[in-house]
Amino acid sequence: PHAVGIHSFYCVSVIGKGSYAKVLLVKKKDTNRYYAMKVLKKQLIEKKRQEAHVKTERDILVELPDCPYIVKLHYSFQSERKLYFVLEYCAGGELFNLLQKRNRLSEEQAMFYAAQLVLALEHLHRHDIVYRDLKPENVLISESGYIKIADFGLSKMGVKQDDAKSLCGTPEYLAPEIIMKLGYGKPVDWWTLGNIVYEMIVGCPPYYSTNRQEVFERIKFTSPKYPDFLSASAKSLLEGLLRKDPSRRLGSAKGALEV
What we know:
Layout: E1 9-17, E2 21-28, E3 34-41, H1 42-47, H2 51-63, E4 73-78, E5 82-88, H3 95-102, H4 107-126, E6 129-130, E7 139-141, E8 147-149, E9 156-157, H5 176-179, H6 187-202, H7 212-221, H8 232-241
Antiparallel strand pairs: 1-2, 2-3, 3-5, 4-5, 6-9, 7-8
Helix pairs in contact: 4-6, 6-8
């Protein structure tokens, strides 16, 4: 009789919409605490063949030990037609929105967020999870100003070596080894970290183009342009993270410690 369900919450507003899910700001009736409720329609999940991705996301959020830089799942339940994930609410919105307002951040600000991303990736990699979709839209900012990685639908569990194969992720952030359909592993996350750090400091992703094929060609064959205002240490970090060869990429040998 005391099971948590949709009846346990007041809906405050819609705070996000995706292709097969929407996110609501809700308030729990008995505690008055705010949460972000992700609502997924079963019919759309089946139609878009996303069952495996949804199951992976729930498994990671349930099984992964708590990390201060990864969004926490508080409750999950279902109705006949929908699935519900009740997650901690991050009042600061997405890093994407912050970058849209500011255009770019100072190196000190970027370092503050990047350090937390490194710790989040270290936590995932320690449990053999490759995140695969690090981008500003998936980085939330808590009320206290710290980041939380969210949305684990494209993550892969049980990755010990370069044994992931599927082509997935957001085009301008994909690592070269994913595009070339080679086996890949944890170094793909250090590549995406390089992309997001570059975007925070420079103001756009390093391989951005409106033409998807051109994006892929740039990722495979060209080096990013490093503006003159970058400090020597920022440029050194980015060059290390954006190495095409994953075996030589910063983070590939000793993980987060190296970065």
